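It is worth pausing here to work through a concrete case rather than discussing structure prediction in the abstract. The textbook approach is simple: state the sequence, then state the predicted structure, then interpret. We follow exactly that order.
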Amino acid sequence: MPRPHPRPWHGGSIFGPGPRRRLDRNQRARFRFLLNAHKRAGRLTDKTEDVGAALLKRLSDVGRCDPSQATLANDAGCEERTVRRAICSMRDLGLLRWERRLVRNGWRCEQTSNAYELVPTAQLLHVPRCGGQNVRETGFLDKSRKPNSAVVAAPDDVAAAQAALARRRAVVEARLALNGSGGAMLAT
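Step two, the predicted structure:
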C-alpha cells in the first residue's frame, strides 16, 4: 500500500516553471470552441468562459501560462473566488490542468502561482442540438392519419409490386449469366 505524502498540501506541487504547452492558431480556436460549446450545453457559466478566455489571453508563444488568480479575476471582470470555481469546473471537463508552483524562501517553501496547461484536445461531451431535442420530431401532414397506424395495401397493388420484382430479378439474372458468375449469389 503506498504511503501517503508527508505533506499532502504539497502534493502536485513543483519547483520551476511548470508544464508548458504551445498552442497554434487552430488549437486556440478549438479551445474557444470547446468553451463555447460547454457554455451552450449549460456545463459552464458565462464568467467561466470569460476566465477561459483570460487564460488563453495570458498564454505566451512558448506555452507558459502562469497568471495569478487576481490577474485572471481582473481580466475576466469577476472575483477571485469565481476564478477558483471556474478553473475547477474547467478541470472537471478536461479543458485545463494545473500544478502549484513553489519557490524557496529561506528554509520555507511558498507558492507563487499555478502553472496552467490548456487542453484543446478534450473530448466534447454529447451536446444535444435543437435546444435539447435528442430525437428527430416531425409533424404529420395528414392529421386524419394516426402516427402508428399501419397502412394496408390493396391486393392489386401487391400483385403489381410482385410482378415488378419478378421482372427485375429476371434482368439481374440475365446480366449475371452474361458476366459468367452463373447466378451463384442469387441462390443464397
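Step three, interpretation. The chain has two domains: 11-118, 151-188. Strands lie at 13-15, 96-105, 108-118.
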